[in-house]
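Box 3.1. Reading complex inputs
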Amino acid sequence: MSDRFDAGAADQRWQQRWEESQLFAADSASARPKAYVLEMFPYPSGRIHMGHVRNYTMGDVLARYKRMTGHEVLHPMGWDAFGMPAENAAMERKVHPGAWTYENIATMRGQLKRLGFALDWTREFATCDPEYYGHQQALFLDLLEAGLVFRKESEVNWDPVDMTVLANEQVIDGKGWRSGAPVERRKLNQWFFRITRFADDLLDGLGDLEKWPDKVKLMQENWIGKSQGLQFRFALDRPAGTADLDAVEVFTTRPDTIFGASFVAIAADHPLAMAIAADQPDAARFIEQCKAGGTSAADIETAEKQGYDTGLKAVHPFDADWQLPVYIANFVLMDYGTGAVFGVPGHDQRDHEFATKYGLPIQRVVAPSADEADEPIGEEADDREGVAVHSRFLDGMETEAAKAEVIRRAEAEGWGEGKTVYRLRDWGISRQRYWGTPIPIVHCESCGPVGVKREDLPIRLPEDVSFDVPGNPLDRHPDWKKIDCPRCGQPATRETDTLDTFVDSSWYFVRFASQPGDRPFDKEEASAWLPVDQYIGGVEHAILHLLYARFITRALQHVGRLDIAEPFAGLFTQGMVTHETYQSLDGRWLGPDEIELGEDGQVIEKTSGGGVRKGRVEKMSKSKKNVVDPIPIVDRYGADAARWFMLSDSPPERDLEWSLGGIEGAARFVQRVWRLAGSEKGEGGEDKALERKLHRTIVAVGEAIEGLQFNKAVAALYELTSAIEKAEPSSARDAAIDTLLRLIAPMAPHLAEEAWAARGHQGFIADAPWPEHDPALLVDDEVTMVVQVNGKLRDKMQVARGIARDKAEEMALSLPKVSQILGDNPPRKVIVVPDRLVNIVA
RNA sequence: GCGGACGUGGCGGAAUGGUAGACGCUGCCGACUUAAAAUCGGCUUUCCGAAAGGAAGUGCGGGUUCAAGUCCCGCCGUCCGCACCA
């Protein structure tokens, strides 16, 4: 063996051998227990970044570990290939989105292979492959036939200058990112998936997801937002002219605060608002104003609360003489509840701001106790629950009881009813863009929207499109949309909207498991692999992607395509990769390769020698120029060092700060293991202490990998490596080295294979069984017990394991340090935790 | 604005309510070397002390407990998501 591990040569050698032997191709028919390990597939943006390296390294360690523990492993890779960046590239660089995307895929595939991931490349696909999106169109038709797809009006961000629909991220401070024009909200007829039909089911299903992080389940629960409340009608004292507008229907989750109401507010696009606008020009103007700005919730809710007093009065349901002003308000959403609310400024912060602005009464109607009924409401609303006060017949009732009582009376008197509502809205899937899956619908004047014939799938995107002007190229294509109606044969037009790319990523994991040519997937084969045992990706996907994938899985079950409800049995959300940022003194962002350490230790800009301000540690991003490209790192230090660093130190769920020192440390460790593997062999001899350490490490590393706590596995392996280095040559030490190689094989596979072969073993270490541990070697005969006085550490003692309580107490009390502190006073109390500590309370 | 998390040495972090700082990085000292690199050994929370030893200490302020980084309440700060970014 040579002195230094040649990472470049070893990486290449083993990657080639793995590929030649098709080692990581998954066999659906295998009799071994199956394990499906999946990382969120990447968007082919151009080059892989550190976040990808971290994500795929974690999954790779688990996949390789599962393989060594006797599983048939499915660990596939593909491309989430539709989306806006390809269209932006087309506009900026005059390249076709498809050409741009497939070039990026080719580059990134090579980069991933360079890292030596144990991936089954035979199952690779891109969502922009017509084969894939054709199957997706078939699934769309299934859902359409099952009544899970419908059409309705909904708002989009409209750029009035570019005459195009904008994504939320393209709206910056209420203006279009290219044109700079103030954005408007505009209504379009669009397609939706009826996800709300599964709202309860998606909520209940969270309860069974034991291997999901609680925080993600909680976020989904809040997103679905199931709440019980009261829906009721406020009579309007002056009918607005038409018979059906003599009442306004509101929904509230706090019916107990009904006596604290001081106004009624309706959405700007509420039918009543429309009716009022018809004869009040000021109202019409206000409604126009409300349409300014983007559609995102953050935009709407951080905007200043504004209202327009319609002059109408709503009659309080419990008191015919009590009238509330009716406002049109910019913060009430038509999509949630009934599009109308009553405002209780005492107990809702938004209502409080509104009431303060318009001089409306603020009355306390809930208090921590009846004694505090007259505590004034201060600068902020009091949103705690308690007992009802100043609320007539509700006075003294607990919040929950008061809610029930109001609902009971409303139902008895016939003006309202208890109702369950969800915050979750139906999933809008229409996108007015080219680079996505065409929605397989034909619009016919006589038949309406009709699904295309299945034998015509895939409905392909036309190649000859131009991106010279903004807007949807499908819509302006000269003949693509012209087609005869599949039902009546009359001339008709294709739907020119494409599907949200979240649809693409909502079933790709099924296609990985089974990919027949003639249908989306085979139910039996997919069932053999699904659900995914461990899914790994960024926490930024905690709600939308994961909820949509759960929905689609249920929908596919509903239409009989699949027989599981939950796609991902285990979920892990990993943190971001961050790096320091640097700015020149005049404010330009500088990349890590544009700076260096000056003679006096100050950071300076390489080209000018000018001063550099160290900025905060932030997520790697092009705009801050703090991106480190993984590939030069891999070329310089080897794939294993890069992988090892990604797993070291930082807990995987937290952010990882990239550092040069860190990668060098990892590379040093790779060399240490290599030297150890080539070190002098011993003849015979036991080494009990080393064996103990070894077997504890086997347990620790296995548990750490199963729990995805790779930083702990790394720490345990450092300890074991040091212990072996310090041990005298012996056969026990040689065995420990072979075991160490198997333990690091999932994390540093090239090093492990190279050293395994150099030590004379046959076959791939990737195929070697995971080491077994001997339980007898895990426990020591002696333990250290801590002796505390009043909870403070004063001494320690070595005792036999399993020592009796009274014996431990006696020993502790006889320690000189203890008696010195206690003096002549007998201890008041002694707490003994077996084998751990004695705490003496003086 | 709403929802969710996180906060421990110079740095990344470890710690079933039971020895705070494992392991790694950095730095310093030493060995090897003509020299350097590589490698190996030691030290590295702060304060007081020559040492032995002592005191303080897990964002801030309270609380529960024999015992709190860990549990509870209230703040502060940072990050993620908010439905057309992926």
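In summary: The radius of gyration of chain A is 33 Å.
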